[in-house]
Write a structure and sequence with these properties.
3-stranded antiparallel sheet; 19% strand; 14 strands; globular; single chain; 38% helix; 312 residues
């Protein structure tokens, strides 16, 4: 295995971000990689603190995620959810039996005074993960969407309404009073390479970049190569509603549109082979466009894309 110099800070959310993070963990030692995860999707269900993007990251990196969905746990059962429904609870958000254990433990530790960062580190240790996985903040930030069906939380929009309502605006409630977590703050100062994983630029990386001072620090960061991987391929999102929301909010639903959203904090944009014809337009924005296979179906695909990024 080749040796790579420097430290990498990866910003991620959702399945696509977890896939690339897995590839990076296969090539970088624990002291070379920090993965900062979106917590704007966090929600309370049945009195439990649920962190969907953090859990997707933990399950993916520990090899216990559902390989068909990319989220949740493999061979999961839903007996508790069925009983909750029998008791009249609202069960539109699927929580499996073993998944519930994660949320119970997180809620218990938070109730005992631990920060979300401390809880995440503890869960990582219990799952045997050595790499640094951190929430973007220990302060609450929640993503809300103004839609033609009303004011919806991220999980209501994505799960309950299946991303069907038309989106008019996206806001990150609480961002003004939130601070980057200690691990995030450290990585912002020390990283020699920033990787914006192929995650929804509005719902996943958007809340991370909205934290006070983060975007400004990345824009002025000297000596740090900043690389973004487009989550839009061929005019559509690889997963999720990113392209739909981008169009509804007036952005181009293309890798060029993603590049424009990251233009102030990005040196290189990695785009899929299907979008090679858009490379000149991205270069015209003052960024380098790298064409590569970005669809990650297998672990080999994830490692191959991570290797391309590290060798830039």
């Amino acid at each position: 295995m080749p040796t790579y110099d420097g430290n990498v800070l990866a910003l991620a959310g959702g399945v696509g971000g977890a896939k690339l993070a897995l590839g990076l963990t296969r090539l970088l030692s624990p002291d070379q990689l920090t993965v900062v995860v979106n917590t704007g999707d966090d929600e309370t269900f049945h009195g439990l603190h649920v962190s969907p993007d953090l859990d997707t990251m933990l399950y993916t990196l520990s090899g216990i995620s559902n390989p068909e969905t990319g989220w949740g746990l493999a061979e999961e059962t839903f007996n508790a959810l069925e009983m909750l429904a029998r008791y009249g609870a609202d069960t539109w958000f699927n929580l499996g039996d073993r998944d519930l254990a994660t949320h119970i433990r997180r809620t218990q530790l938070l109730g005992e005074g631990a920060t979300l960062s401390q809880v995440t580190t503890d869960l990582c240790d219990r799952l045997g993960l050595a790499h640094h996985i951190a929430p973007m903040s220990d302060d609450p930030v929640r993503t809300w969407l103004e839609t033609d069906s009303g004011h919806l939380s991220m999980q209501e929009y994505f799960v309950k309404f299946r991303s069907e309502p038309s989106v008019r605006s996206v806001t990150y409630q609480g961002w003004e009073d939130a601070a980057p977590s200690a691990e995030f703050d450290r990585a912002l100062a020390e990283a020699s390479r920033l990787v914006l994983c192929p995650s929804n630029p509005l719902l996943s990386t958007g809340p991370i970049l909205a934290l006070p001072g983060v975007r400004e620090r990345l824009a002025k960061r000297a000596g740090c190569l900043r690389i973004a991987v487009s989550p839009i391929v061929g005019g559509e999102a690889v997963r999720g509603p990113a392209a739909k929301i981008m169009r509804e909010l007036g952005h181009e639903a293309t890798c060029e549109g993603v590049a424009k959203m990251y233009a102030d904090i990005c040196d290189i944009v990695v785009i899929d082979e299907q979008d090679a014809d858009l490379a000149p337009a991205i270069r015209g924005l003052g960024m380098t466009a790298v064409v590569a296979p970005t669809i990650m179906n297998t672990e080999a695909d994830k490692v191959a894309l991570a290797r391309i990024i590290l060798e830039l």
